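Students often ask what a holo structure prediction actually looks like on paper. The answer is less mysterious than it sounds. You provide the chain, you provide the ligand, and the output is a string of discrete structure tokens encoding the 3D arrangement of the protein together with 3-phosphoglyceric acid.
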Amino acid sequence: MNTAAEVLDLSPVIPVVALDDPAHAVPLAEALLRGGIRTIEMTLRTPAGLPAIEHIAAEVPEIVVGAGTVTEPSQVSRAVDAGARYLVTPGCTDRLLDHVEAVGVPYLAGVSTVSEAMRLAERGVHAMKFFPAEPSGGVPYLKAIAGPLPHLRFCPTGGISPGNAASYLALPNVGCVGGSWLTPKDLLVGGEWGRIEDLAREAAELG
Ligand code: 3PG
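The corresponding structure tokens follow.
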């Protein structure tokens, strides 16, 4: 997997996960896989994020693990060294993207304006995250920019749920969506892997 476009093609839904306990990483990844989801975005919002990536990369190599919420250049090589196969950033500052491009893994950079999307296209990147999707205009916004920017594809994230995911996925410029609804905290803490598998299966069927 070498390009952002390939990241968008992994699964109809990218589960965006924040873990408190790295011991949950492997059973979680296995539950998602059983449900038919082939990737997981492990965010670096918690100290468990990096060790969780390490566990998944080593023990569940069938799922493609990415690192999310990458906001600082110092996180970039640590995430890749831990085993992240792609990086996700909520925004797209030049300084951060320079560091991300230097490590050579694909990335989904967050955009919420036409100019940000065009700036990424100038870097040769044509697939990106649309964040935060719902507050930034949601489905109507993505429809409106498909005309002037027909060559760009998006992973909308932020406010996506089972109720609105299908309307995003129906858009020609949406490759997949991202969201945290597959991995609610109570199910993680309770180790309810069967229920997470069910949520994953419903999400996989959206594709
Ligand atoms: C993200 O970082 O991509 C979002 O926090 C996920 O958004 P959600 O919790 O609204 O799904």
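The longest helix spans residues 193-205.
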